[in-house]
Design brief:
four-stranded antiparallel sheet; 8 strands; Jelly Rolls; single chain
Length: 169
C-alpha cells in the first residue's frame, strides 16, 4: 500500500510511456517475452497456457523502487501482486519470523485473488525491479478470460491437496 501511496503522492513518478522517472538501478527494459518467461515460473500460474500468460503480461507493469521502500505492510489492504525481477526484499511475518525474497520469488498472490489484508510486511533490501499486477486489472482479465479462472482454480486445488497431504498420511 505504501508503494501505491508513493505513486499517488508523486514521490515515484512516471514518464508518458509509463516508465518510472529518475535514476534507473537496472539496465535495459523488460520485453513482453521476458515478462512471460518470468511469469511461467510463478507457481500460482503454473497451469496457464502461453496465451494466458501473454494476457497476464499485458496487464503487468515493471517498476523500480529504491532500497528501504516498504512494498507491503501486514494488516493493510493488498491490491497488488509483486514478482521480483532483480534485487532482494525482506519479509517480516513477526519479529521472530523473517525471510528474504530473491529474483523469481513473489508475494501478494493472496491479495491479488481476494483483496484481503497483507499477511506480512515486505521491504526492499536493495533496489528492486518488480513486475506488478494490480488486482483490478487481474479481476477484469478473469472476467474476459474465464479459462484463466479455471487454470487458477486447478492450480490452487493442487496446492491445497499438497499442503494437506502430510496431514492425512
Amino acid at each position: 500500500m505504501e508503494l501505491v501511496t508513493r505513486i499517488l503522492d508523486g514521490s515515484i513518478t512516471y514518464t508518458p510511456r509509463g516508465e518510472p522517472r529518475g535514476r534507473s538501478f537496472f539496465g535495459g527494459r523488460i520485453s513482453q517475452d521476458d515478462k512471460i518467461d518470468r511469469l511461467e515460473d510463478v507457481g500460482l500460474l503454473s497451469g496457464c497456457s502461453r496465451r494466458q500468460l501473454r494476457a497476464i503480461a499485458r496487464i503487468s507493469e515493471v517498476i523500480e523502487v529504491p532500497a528501504a521502500s516498504v512494498l507491503a505492510r501486514a494488516g493493510q489492504p493488498g491490491e497488488e501482486f509483486f514478482l521480483i525481477l532483480d534485487g532482494s526484499a525482506r519479509v517480516e511475518v513477526s519479529p521472530r519470523k523473517r525471510s528474504r525474497l530473491e529474483p523469481g520469488q513473489y508475494f501478494g498472490e493472496m491479495s491479488l485473488l481476494d483483496g484481503g489484508p497483507r499477511s506480512a510486511s515486505v521491504t526492499a533490501e536493495t533496489p528492486l525491479r518488480l513486475l506488478v499486477i494490480k488486482r483490478r486489472d487481474f479481476t477484469t482479465l478473469l472476467r474476459e478470460a474465464p479459462e484463466l479462472t479455471q487454470s487458477l482454480l486447478a492450480t490452487l486445488s493442487q496446492r491445497v491437496r499438497q499442503a494437506e497431504a502430510p496431514l492425512t498420511d
